[in-house]
Specification:
The complex is a heterodimer of chains A (286) and B (166). Chain A has 286 residues and is an alpha+beta fold. Chain A is built from eleven helices and 14 strands. In chain A, helix 10 runs antiparallel to helix 11. The longest helix of chain A is centred in the last third of the chain and has 24 residues. The radius of gyration of chain A is 19 Å and the shape is globular. The model of chain A has no long low-confidence stretch (mean pLDDT 97). Chain B has a five-stranded mixed β-sheet with strand order 2-1-5-3-4, sandwiched between helices. In chain B, strand 3 and strand 4 form a beta hairpin. The mean pLDDT of chain B is 97. The chains are: A alpha+beta (286), B alpha+beta (166). The complex binds flavin-adenine dinucleotide and FE2/S2 (inorganic) cluster (FES) (2 copies). One FE2/S2 (inorganic) cluster (FES) binds next to loops of chain B. The site of one FE2/S2 (inorganic) cluster has 12 residues of chain B, from loops.
């Protein structure tokens, strides 16, 4: 199985990439290619040009500026896992990246590709929503930023406009917190049947702050705001957790596919939200 | 579609050829360069039979374009033997521990294990299983593959591996 024909470009700068993208009729940027090339082989997409971001050094790397971690779009999952900065400041990214695909895919799959792809099965988007990350975007005219929480519009539909490129992801580093990414998958390397990202801060025995987001339980990743609100201000006990799980289940709208029926996925979705909350609470307390 | 000149280092020697941008790296290596040790199992990024080492990373060569390997350092199963032609540590480990039956997955397994041992010279069995999670084997049940990789790891550390194959 090979992709259809296309023109191939390998620019050295974001400006050049944006120019090539603008000039091409329906060109796409190529990051790790581990979502795009499989789709092209299946003719689910047939771009006339691929603009390979692989040679643009400015799109790589992880740095801390003030209270934010800034991750270049072409940083691979493997590089995230190897980063001491990530391990120290945003351990939930480590926990998530290691559940994505398999070693070979993680060596090439990028964080930019993962968040820009728009597949509801991708794991990073929900985590970015929970963390309240911001995507930095370069475009044909001027640069702009979009919050992860406002980026996902539908299955494979995002706020990205034609000709735009995600250049970096900016994540506010939370203070002392508990976190968890709980993912149910059929086998190693599979996309989530259901998954949940949870961040929790405890103060004086009560939940002071909480964010919950869901993967592959609707056409887009979901920020479960009512579920988080059900926990804030309360002691981390079973009653509060049950209320949060019920609120999370209410917004789930999973597809009926080979990973299960909507009823099954909502059922296990709730269980994974519960597990994630409990683990985040234990870590926040520890 | 016009062809592009692709040039990279393959198992230490210069390799080059002309191909369309859509040509997959595995096809370029097998068909243009006639180096056929790398196998194609699924061609859909799942089985790992096509694994090659590219700039120090294990990658599935059915899901990379040959043009993406421009200027890279590529190593395939043909690059795993010792310089004098004798079996490399991993090849020897797979032989001693019966790490293969039909052998279809073996080129990908060995090339993946090569990078795994470079990154982690003393892995636990569990770390090996996690590290080869992108490589499927339909024959062995993996037990002897794990032992084969431990055999090689021990040899590379100058130690003896005392366990027997299953
Ligand atoms: C066997 C297998 C299992 C997998 N399992 C999982 C899993 O469990 N969880 C998971 O999350 N993913 C999984 N993936 C997908 C993998 O993580 C991809 O690498 C990821 O979805 C896309 O990243 P990429 O760098 O490969 O992007 P590409 O495939 O190159 O691009 C994907 C899309 O995003 C666009 N794009 C890429 N980068 C940018 C950018 N900087 N700006 C704008 N648009 C951009 C491209 O044009 C394309 O439309 C799996 C893939 C495989 C092959
Ligand atoms: S042939 Fe490449 S992963 Fe199966
Ligand atoms: S030995 Fe037959 S597939 Fe592994």
């Amino acid at each position: 199985m090979i992709p259809g024909t296309f023109e191939y470009h390998r620019p050295k700068s974001v400006a050049e990439a944006a120019k090539l993208l603008r000039k091409s009729k329906d060109g796409r940027v190529l990051a790790g290619g581990h979502s795009l090339l499989p789709m092209m082989k299946l003719r689910m997409t047939e771009p006339s040009a691929l603009i390979d971001l692989g040679a643009i050094a400015a799109l790589r790397g992880i740095k801390k500026t003030g209270t934010k971690l800034v991750i270049g779009a072409m940083t691979t999952q493997h590089e995230l896992l190897a980063s001491a900065l990530v391990a120290k400041n945003l351990p939930i990214l480590h926990e998530t990246a290691i559940l994505i695909a398999d070693p070979q895919v993680r060596y090439v799959g990028t964080i930019g590709g993962n968040v820009a792809n728009g597949d509801p099965g991708n794991d990073m988007p929900a985590v970015m929503m929970a963390l309240d990350a911001t995507y930095k975007i370069a475009g044909p005219t001027k640069a702009r930023v979009v919050k992860a929480r406002a980026f996902y519009k539908g299955s494979y539909e995002t706020a990205l406009k034609a000709g735009e490129i995600v250049t970096a992801i900016e994540i506010p580093v939370p203070g002392k917190h508990g976190f968890a990414y709980e993912k149910l998958k059929r086998k190693v390397g599979d996309y989530a049947t259901a998954a949940a990202a949870v961040l929790i801060t405890l103060k004086a025995g009560k939940i002071a702050a909480c964010a919950i987001a869901l993967t592959n339980l609707a056409p887009t990743p979901l920020l479960a705001e009512a579920a988080a609100a059900a926990l804030v201000g309360r002691a981390p006990d079973d009653a509060a957790i049950s209320a949060a799980v019920a609120a999370a289940r209410k917004i789930m709208d999973p597809a009926n596919d080979t990973r299960g029926t909507p009823a099954y996925r909502k059922s296990v979705g709730g269980i994974y939200v519960e597990r994630a909350i409990k683990r985040a609470i234990a870590r926040a307390a520890g | 579609m016009s062809k592009t000149h692709v040039k990279f280092k393959l198992n230490g020697a210069a390799a080059e050829g002309m191909c369309e941008p859509r040509t997959l790296l595995v096809h370029f290596i097998r068909e243009n360069l006639s180096i056929t040790g790398t196998h194609i199992g699924c061609e859909t990024t799942h089985c790992g039979a096509c694994t090659v080492d590219l700039n120090g990373k294990s990658v599935k060569s059915c899901t990379l374009l040959a043009v993406q390997a421009q200027g890279a350092d590529v190593v395939t199963i043909e690059g795993m033997a010792n310089a004098d032609g004798t079996l490399g540590a991993l090849q020897e480990g797979f032989r001693q521990m019966h790490g293969l039956q039909c052998g279809y997955c073996t080129p990908g397994m060995i090339v993946r294990a090569h990078r795994l041992l470079k990154e982690n010279p003393k892995p636990t069995d569990e770390e090996i299983r996690f590290g080869i999670a992108g490589n499927l084997c339909r024959c062995t049940g993996y037990q002897n593959i794990v032992k084969a990789i431990q055999h090689a790891a021990a040899k590379l550390r100058g130690e003896e591996y005392l366990e027997a194959a299953e």
